[in-house]
Amino acid sequence: MKLIGIVDTTFARYDMASSAIDELYKTGTGFEIKRYTVPGIKDTPVAALRLFSEYNCDLVMAFGMPGPMPVDKMSAQIASTGLMEVQLKTMKHILEVFVHEDEAKDDRELAWLCDNRSREHAVNAYYLLFEPDKLTENAGSGLRQGFEDRGPVNSGSSGHKH
Amino acid sequence: MKLIGIVDTTFARYDMASSAIDELYKTGTGFEIKRYTVPGIKDTPVAALRLFSEYNCDLVMAFGMPGPMPVDKMSAQIASTGLMEVQLKTMKHILEVFVHEDEAKDDRELAWLCDNRSREHAVNAYYLLFEPDKLTENAGSGLRQGFEDRGPVNSGSSGHKH
Amino acid sequence: MKLIGIVDTTFARYDMASSAIDELYKTGTGFEIKRYTVPGIKDTPVAALRLFSEYNCDLVMAFGMPGPMPVDKMSAQIASTGLMEVQLKTMKHILEVFVHEDEAKDDRELAWLCDNRSREHAVNAYYLLFEPDKLTENAGSGLRQGFEDRGPVNSGSSGHKH
Amino acid sequence: MKLIGIVDTTFARYDMASSAIDELYKTGTGFEIKRYTVPGIKDTPVAALRLFSEYNCDLVMAFGMPGPMPVDKMSAQIASTGLMEVQLKTMKHILEVFVHEDEAKDDRELAWLCDNRSREHAVNAYYLLFEPDKLTENAGSGLRQGFEDRGPVNSGSSGHKH
Amino acid sequence: MKLIGIVDTTFARYDMASSAIDELYKTGTGFEIKRYTVPGIKDTPVAALRLFSEYNCDLVMAFGMPGPMPVDKMSAQIASTGLMEVQLKTMKHILEVFVHEDEAKDDRELAWLCDNRSREHAVNAYYLLFEPDKLTENAGSGLRQGFEDRGPVNSGSSGHKH
């Protein structure tokens, strides 16, 4: 039985963790979930570290919604740097699922984007733990989480074989 | 008995630590407080680390007020990076309570913002130590410390259930 | 027998890893390859670290394609910082092979650039492992991977001897 | 007997260390001084670390003068990040005394600023080592080193008590 | 006998390492040199670390030439951060000798700048290892490597004594 950690914030304006948890249970079995909520994204790295060290999680998903101001972008950068550091301390993956508030044109799209990105990254989390070959099959395919996939640059061309 | 560390600066233009300490005592019991004042925000990380290592604090609140100039923003980034590093070394939370001087339109609003943000983060500190479920109840709710809460993007909609 | 690790992403829009693997086999022998695909560039550092620690790789090539937006540039910076950290933890080289999507004027050039840069860095990887003197012979020569070499500033001059 | 380390550079255009040393001796007793000069600010962190590890310094003051160009600002950021890291490795304070060359309107003001900031931070260094309560008394007071103090935002108001 | 490590790149457009090596031999004796060439500046930190750990170098000079584009500036920042980290791991100095391609107005000046900066930093390296007092004598003197020295701000004034 694997253990997937979920870190999220009260700052975010959408309950992305619940979308991801719902999608994880639709995708497969063989895991349990441990959730840890903190105030803001800069609090997520130590929460993730504690999930790894105290609960022995196998992978963590970290959800956050940076605001639109420069100070928010700086917070996102520092949070990401911390999440990176935790991964390198623990040798475990953290999937960072951040939706920047200014990625969407209005609240409706923002809610959709949060739900969709969380679900698509939940599938990535499942693949990393249980079916890593599914990721290699899609290497270089221009996949996106949330908005539409970009696709590979050479789709339709005959010059390159995967 | 828990021990909450308080780090603040002589650079800040408001005594945010006193607001937080006052609010902590209003919020609950079961903790003591240890305070450590340094000149500026870049001095706060090592102070926090010493509070964890010498006094065995369970959580630290770090208060600072970055100025409006680019050099001040850089100082804030470096201080935040240091506070992150201390959290990952100690596996303990540091709540960073920074009020950027240019967040407020005048000194009156700045004083109000400092007081209010410090108090709201004091409650977050209490929850992290004593009632973590209170945070999960508010996951994705768009809470803010200081200015008004943004609220969830799907409030009033019928499309999503928490 | 050396082991070369390959980390790539499903986010990238070109299968750069396959170009590099093809070129490695054209360049020489004495190595095997282990591939690890992750969703995005910020997932590459921990993948590289696992290739070093679990499979004892001697060198890793990390392939990624940062998008054109500021948030993508920040992701690239954080990924690079993580790849740096992994190198310093393991004392092994990681050749970072990033192609920024906005380096090319269209998809055709982007595909060409991805293929070419991957191949030229594959040769660098081979030299680092098997023929380091080939690199010293070209020190200060203004070599580039992908686009045309810039060349040395003093080519044609008589004032300086290598 | 405490030992205060002094790190400075040949790049800076003012001998800030001598100002600080002079002020330290005016401020109190109970310490000795060890000085280590390096070429530029990016060389100061390892110098500080060596002062801590080889000479067992209790605190280090690091003096530098970043130039006005973007490359200089980047150097300052990297130096500060390194000084932060050294503090967290040693659990000792480093007071970073940087004067950016473009903070002053001319050379005369620059010399005055260097001298004054160095002296005021020398007093901070003394307080950190010998009289930490002096800092707490001034928490939130808007103190500055070099230019005039900003003062607290609520001076003269009746709405807040320290 | 001291050992000076030299790290340089095939990306740079001038063989700065050869200038530095030539100048080191003109400056003094008592050292040997070990050279390690890598593709680009982001590869220099792990090369420096290997020179320290495998060859027991006493000091490393790291040569690089960041290009003029934002992506190049980011690479320089990451390389510098890595070189900083290596210094703090090993407690040894790395003199970073970077010449940004856009510092010079044309190729001729670029070549001159590379040669001159490399030579002047070679002397700094020698002083750090063999005559550290020479650096303290020049503390605060506004020295530059490459372009003309800026000099101290108080030259000619009578208000300040070193």
UniProtKB/TrEMBL annotation, chains A, B, C, D, E:
<dbReference type="GO" id="GO:0009231">
    <property type="term" value="P:riboflavin biosynthetic process"/>
</dbReference>
<dbReference type="InterPro" id="IPR002180">
    <property type="entry name" value="LS/RS"/>
</dbReference>
<dbReference type="InterPro" id="IPR006399">
    <property type="entry name" value="Ribfl_synth_arc"/>
</dbReference>
<comment type="similarity">
    <text>Belongs to the DMRL synthase family.</text>
</comment>
<dbReference type="Pfam" id="PF00885">
    <property type="entry name" value="DMRL_synthase"/>
</dbReference>
<dbReference type="GO" id="GO:0004746">
    <property type="term" value="F:riboflavin synthase activity"/>
</dbReference>
<feature type="region of interest" description="Disordered">
    <location>
        <begin position="140"/>
        <end position="162"/>
    </location>
</feature>
<keyword id="KW-0808">Transferase</keyword>
<comment type="pathway">
    <text>Cofactor biosynthesis; riboflavin biosynthesis; riboflavin from 2-hydroxy-3-oxobutyl phosphate and 5-amino-6-(D-ribitylamino)uracil: step 2/2.</text>
</comment>
<dbReference type="GO" id="GO:0009349">
    <property type="term" value="C:riboflavin synthase complex"/>
</dbReference>
<keyword id="KW-0686">Riboflavin biosynthesis</keyword>
<dbReference type="InterPro" id="IPR036467">
    <property type="entry name" value="LS/RS_sf"/>
</dbReference>
<protein>
    <recommendedName>
        <fullName>Riboflavin synthase</fullName>
        <ecNumber>2.5.1.9</ecNumber>
    </recommendedName>
</protein>
